[in-house]
Amino acid sequence: MANNTFVTQPSLPPLDDFIPYLREIWESKNLTNGGPFHQRLEAALCEYLGVEHIALFSNGTLGLVTALQALRVTGEVITTPYSFVATAHSLLWNGIKPVFVDVQADTLNLDPEKIEAAITPQTTAIMPVHCYGHPCDVDAIAKIADTYGLKVIYDAAHSFGVQTETGSVLRYGDLSVLSFHATKVFNTFEGGAIVCPDAKTKQRIDHLKNFGFVDEVTVVAPGINGKMNEVCASFGLLQLQGVDEAIRLRGEVDIRYRQGLESVRGIRCLGDAGERVKNYSYFPIMVGVEYGMSRDELYAKLRSEGIYGRRYFYPLITDFPMYRGLPSAARSNLPNAAKAAAEVICLPIYPSLEKDIQDKIISIIAA
Ligand SMILES: Cc1ncc(COP(=O)(O)O)c(C=O)c1O
After folding, report:
1. Which of 54, 67, 83, 266 is surrounded by the most beta carbons within 10 Å?
2. pTM for the whole thing?
3. Modified residue N6-(pyridoxal phosphate)lysine is at which positions (predicted)?
4. CATH number for position 203
5. Quick one: 209 and 86 in the same domain?
6. Are residues 135 and 167 in the same domain?
């Protein structure tokens, strides 16, 4: 176990730095319910990310479920099969039918050119994912949404800090949902957030994440308990101080992989999708036929050497029993997603990944 390398390792500040935050919580006895750390983290994240309004959540999945509730999305929603299951699960939890559309071969993001053909009179929204933190074609998606009067909720679980030429990628769509899970670039142990464009929407989301309570005696909606607690919020404030350095170090890992794997026949490193500021949240490689070994053989070889990459996203969401019977889940409808699910391995990437381990990973792949 000690010598194994996993796809990620959470960045943690020194424990001593966290103690004063915990002491403050212990002294105030304010543990949750939108306490002072919760409010401070919302403000700090708005500033760091360059967005207007943020509602913190106890995890990203509840953020997705609540975002759909907040916009009263019903019927059918167009989404990607190439994601973590929570994307589609959030639709089922709202009684919404997912309609799967293929991804682009180069970015692995929802292909805007294929969205229109999937729209029906029941379609009310699109839920794209900025896969691996690479921005979707936000302008093309906005155009389609405008034409057909659809809402857009971005699953931005991978997109902390990512910017396009016009600023934060989180400003696109009606809402964007972040995850602060332990495996993410910025973590609060568990956590998440909805980025929203106006104060009124944030207020509705704040009610929804607190059972629908507006005041002591008024409940306006069948809300849920999605609040981030004070321990996680205070940890987030501390984490925020180190996040620029964490992303910088991830960037060094990224470039070392690219240089080391450049000349390996059959291995393709996924490029960016035009982002101006990246977060290097994942390092996916695609193992093509020319490599001479299948993706699964390489995956097993790496594991036998203690290197635990991950086949994100295999199986496709559409392969799971609750989705595979849908007409849009047919393989023939999703050739690019199916190819990616068969070819991708995400290699270990995290700020403290030692250079010699990284070189070992590169040499196993290049051997
Ligand atoms: C694309 C995507 N969506 C949603 C989630 C769910 O976020 P959480 O684990 O914070 O609930 C994750 C990851 O965990 C994810 O990768």
Report:
1. 67
2. 0.98
3. 184
4. 3.40.640.10
5. yes
6. yes
Count of domains forming the chain: 2
> Which backbone phi and psi does 327 adopt, to 5 degrees?
-55, -40
- The pLDDT-based confidence of 3 (bands split at 50, 70, 90) is confident
Atom 10 in ligand 1: residue holding the nearest Cα: 60
Residue at which a domain ends, from 222, 238, 254: 238
Buried b (16+ CB within 10 A) or exposed e, 241-270: ebbeebbebbeebbebbeebbeebebbbbb
Q: Tell the residue nearest (CA) to atom 8 of ligand 1.
A: 60
Q: Are residues 183 and 94 part of one domain?
A: yes
Is there a single domain that holds both residue 140 and residue 207?
yes
**Residue 41 shares a structural domain with residue 94:** yes
Cα 350 to Cα 356: distance, rounded to the nearest angstrom: 14
For the record, the structure tokens of 196 come out as 């929203």
Q: Does residue 157 belong to any structural domain of this protein?
A: yes
Q: Find residue 274's DSSP bridge partners.
A: none
For residues 194 and 101, membership in a common domain is answered with yes
CA of 10 to the centre of ligand 1 (A): 15
Q: Quick one: CA dihedral 17, 23, 24, 26, positive or negative?
A: positive
Distance (Å) from CA 83 to ligand 1 centroid = 9
The tokens 């690219």 sit on which residue? 258
| Residues within 6 Å of ligand 1 by CB | 59-61, 83-84, 86-87, 129, 155, 157-158, 179, 181, 192
Measured over the CA atoms of residue 307, residue 10, residue 285 and residue 294, the dihedral's sign is positive
Ligand 1 centroid to residue 181 C-alpha, Å:
7
279 and 327 fall within a common domain: yes
- Tokens (6 digits) for 350: 């995290």
